[in-house]
Amino acid sequence: MIHDAHLADAIRTLRDGQSSITVYVEELRERVEAVEPQLESLVPEAGRWERVLAEAAALEERYPNPTDRPPLYGVPIGVKDIFHVDGLPTRAGSTLPPAALAGQEGDAVQRMRDAGALILGKAVTTEFAYFEPGPTRNPHDIAHTPGGSSSGSAAAVAAGLCPFAFGSQTVGSVIRPAAFCGVVGFKPTFGRIPTTGMIEFSKSVDHVGFFTQDTVGAELAAAVLCDDWRHLPSQREKPVLGVPEGPYLDQVSEVGRHGFETHLEALRDAGYDIVSVPILDDIDAINHRHDRLNAAELAIAHEAWYEAYGDEYSETTRTLIEEGRTIPTREIARGRQSRLEVRDRLEAAMDDAGIDLWIAPSAPGPAPEGIDSTGDPVMNLPWTHSGLPTIALPGTTSEEGLPLGVQCAAPFGADERLLDWSHEIAAAL
């Protein structure tokens, strides 16, 4: 069910006029109709193709000259269904009335539109971006989860239904599904992509992120989406990679650890220096503070909806909201302060050890069997908690043929360097 759909290739093909947008959309339509009945990555939409083709024709008429075309001219994208999109309902994987959840389209989606992208449609999400899964399956093996909460976005990109899709990450909802589906997932520095127009989970740690099949495409998209993007000269020196040894890394499974060692060996063979750095020995306390902060802020964000439609929430989400309602203000404040403390510790350790990027497994192991769970985000939590920019890169596969990958994290605000370095790291893997 895996199919090539590299964003950089799509941009080149459409902007240069090698293919018209309408022809490209028709090719995607054939692909969607062939695999989507089994994959279930997209939210059903009546009249999808008529809408998209009409928008494609309008773009072609508006930009007949290739030299005038915007950077993402004609690229169809998926949008996780917690983002508001003008003309499409927002359900957020829930059974609440779409009218109750309605809101204005935010900056991230608008930036993609302004850059010439087309909205292919909404992608399936777990309920309110938490743990209650939707129907989406892993395109590598439909008996396995694609991860979550950005389930549909990761699966759609891996299956070649679109070359880009939005996700969001509050713990591991971009990096983990990217790992499970074998694609590139990018979570920027906290706040670098605006969260306007998105149903809030935890305002202190919500990140807008996205999926592509290629690191070059990820860099092109990031340049459109991130505030104050800087086009820096390419770095010739390989980064020194730091492995966060200790209790954090001990959370990975035996299969995941074996895969990680294989990835490190490949990087050493490619000339990378890799340094082991003992850190995050208090990972259990960090995990607890992050989880409690999320519960409290979810309860705050959903207060009005929960009062009006509490019976419509799944038991999983309801339990977290009820927990969040009991958390005292001082504990919320402690959780928010912890983000800055962990960030400072991680960056200080980088300076002391002379490393440029952290590297770790993207997930505890390959995608678990079944779709009743989206897997454990524990390997992603400290990078989200600290707000460091992080990228998931595909690597080897398990004995069952399921993807295994790594995640690399850079200092706060160093998104440009991270993405520039990611090209050669991905090639080495």
CATH architecture classification of the largest domain: Alpha-Beta Complex
- Can you tell me the number of structural domains? 3
Per DSSP E runs of 2 or more residues, the count of β-strands stands at 10
Indicate the low-confidence ranges by residue numbers.
Answer: none
Distance between the termini: 22 Å
DSSP helical segment count: 15
3D shape: globular
How is the CATH topology of the largest domain named? Amidase signature (AS) enzymes
Mean pLDDT: 98
User: In what order do the strands lie side by side in the largest sheet?
Assistant: 2-1-3-5-4-9-10-8-6-7
Helix content: 40-55%
CATH-level-4 superfamily name of the largest domain: Amidase signature (AS) domain
Give the DSSP E fraction (strand runs of 2 or more residues): 5-15%
Radius of gyration: 20 Å
- What is the H/E string? HHHEHHEHEHEEHEHEHHHHEHEEH
CATH class group of the largest domain: Alpha Beta
Largest beta-sheet characterization: 10 strands, mixed
Structural class estimated from helices and strands: alpha/beta
Pfam families: Amidase
Protein name: Amidase
GO molecular function: catalytic activity
Domain Amidase: 25-419
